[in-house]
Amino acid sequence: MIFPSITEVVLRDGQQSLIASRMRTNDMVPILSKMDLVGYSSLEAWGGATYDCCLRFLNEDPWERLKTLKKYLKQTKIQMLLRGKNLVGYKKYHDSVVELFIKTSAKEGVAIFRIFDALNDIDNIESSITFARKQDTDAQGTISYTTSPIHNLNYWLRLAKNIEDIGASSLAIKDMAGLLRPKTAYTLIKKLKKNLNIPIHLHTHSTTGLADATNFKAFEAGVDNIDTSISSFSNLYAHTATESMIAMMYDNRSSPFNNELLTEISKYFENIRKNYSKYEGSMKGIDVKMLTNQVPGGMLSILEKQLVDLKKQHKLMDLIKEIPRIRKDVGYIPLVTPTSQIVGAQALSNIIDGERYKNLNKEFIDLIRGGYGKIPGVVDLDLQRKVEDYQLHEIDHFDVDILKKDFISFCEENNLKKIKNSDTDLLNFILFPEQAKDFYLQQRKPSFNDIIELQEGFGFYLSD
Ligand code: CO
Fold first, then answer.
1. pLDDT tens across 212-247, in order?
2. Cβ count within 10 A of residue 184
3. 3-state DSSP call for residue 208?
4. In this predicted structure, what is the pLDDT of residue 299?
5. What are the helix (H) ranges across 275-380?
């Protein structure tokens, strides 16, 4: 019997799914050395939302977090989730930016890049895979899983084979909305194992109540690696609990994982979670509605809030029904960042206007025009005609040298000598210009309130 290795996701997706990515670095540090000894194949610890939240909400430099993780994790690999050409942002970047980002992340500690694209467009992940391989890291290509009349077994096999052919060193099935059913997972993984030579990883969510069974069937099918989250940060919007997965797979046999250590880690995070209770979602158990309407939980809660703000909460059911209709109209795209936001915003317009596609959002037009990549299915003809006259916005942005000039003038104008020559600071500036400017200006001239914030956020670094 072959047992899959385990990726622990509490530091990235676990806390992203349950407490909106608000966990601070100094709440991670005390437990890292213990996590390092468990025997996980990797710790997923970095990604788009964690990067964004560090700068936007936590007043932390995401790169300092990465460096800190690397310092304490002596043997366990650090894994990150990368949105292909979108990196950790919401639009495409020039390949020179992609290369600098991957090179710098690898240098600061990322050993596995899980690279995905919301549309499953191979062109959007190829350069990242090439750059990650160049850095001698694990370049993991990804299937963004969804269900639709066009997403059948052959579709996934073809895509997986393409991902192997462009040089991915492993393949992940990323089921962000918990749509993958146990028997489907079994068949899919059996086929992938038979047709591909690279290791297969599975990532699913507990939202619809299928994850434990799906992970178990994947184990039976011979999957190479499963993603889990420590029990005190598991289930609901998150993942199968690490300890439960181990218990299921090893039954009465002894496992290579240290149970006492796992209990200690879970206890630690149980206490930490209490500090973030205001970021917890409203879900109490599971949400089977998602299996039919395909709206991911995170997306639904945001749309619900927007309707309340507009005093249109009675339109919620209409909105939920509108999302799969739009999905059909735009060729059954998977819903994951950034397509989930784009489709959600258009659905809201359609419902508020009381007429479908009366107003078209800029990003929605770009999506249909192929600005985000190739659409997997066929776009509705009327909709295609509607966008013909619009100009495609320039999404593929400037190269790194041009962007660097802006950064240097910003540093010079604001007397930020120390950060001028740093690639990590440059990348913060390129990827999140507004947030990065605020962040660096605060560092230069902290007001009284900022000092309190800084001490809270940077307590660990200041004392280190
Ligand atoms: Co996930």
1. 999 999 999 999 999 999 999 999 999 999 999 999
2. 17
3. coil
4. 77
5. 289-293, 297-309, 316-329, 339-353, 362-368
pLDDT at 330 over 80: yes
State the sign of the Cα–Cα–Cα–Cα dihedral 166, 160, 373, 101.
negative
- DSSP type of residue 3: P
Tokens of 262: 């796992």
Cα of 239 vs centre of ligand 1, distance in Å, is: 8
Q: Which of 115, 120, 109, 34 is nearest to 81 (CA)?
A: 115
How far, in Å, from the CA of 393 to the mean position of ligand 1? 30
Vertex 354: Cα angle to 322 and 359 (nearest 5): 85
Distance between Cα 261 and ligand 1 center (Å): 24
Question: Which residues make up the environment of ion ligand 1, defined by Cβ < 5 Å?
Answer: 13, 176
Token pair for 107? 């240098």
Amino acid present at 12: R
Distances (CA, A) of 198 to 20, 44, 169, 188: 33, 20, 6, 15
Cα distance between residue 439 and residue 429, in whole Å? 10
pLDDT confidence band for 82 (50 / 70 / 90): very high
The full DSSP string for 132-163 is: HHHTTSEEEEEEE---SSS--HHHHHHHHHHH
The residue-averaged pLDDT of 196-217 equals 97
Q: Which residues contact 171 (CB under 8 A, 6 or more apart)?
A: 140, 141, 142, 143, 160, 163, 164, 192, 196, 198, 199, 200, 201
Ligand 1 centroid–CA 410 distance in Å is 36
Residue 48 alpha carbon to ligand 1 centre in Å: 12
In this predicted model, what pLDDT tens digit does every residue of 97-150 receive, in sequence order? 999 999 999 999 999 999 999 999 999 999 999 999 999 999 999 999 999 999
Q: What is the 3-class SS of 306-332, one letter each residue?
A: HHHHCCCHHHHHHHHHHHHHHHHHECC
Q: CA-to-CA distance for 268 and 45, rounded, in angstroms?
A: 17
pTM of the model: 0.92
List Cα–Cα distances, 233 to 228, 287, 422, in angstroms.
Answer: 10, 18, 35
pLDDT tens readout for residues 331-365: 999 998 889 889 999 999 999 999 999 999 999 99
- What average pLDDT score do residues 51-73 get? 96
> Do β-strands 138-144 and 200-204 pair in parallel, antiparallel, or remain unpaired?
unpaired
Distance 166 CA to ligand 1 centre (A): 24
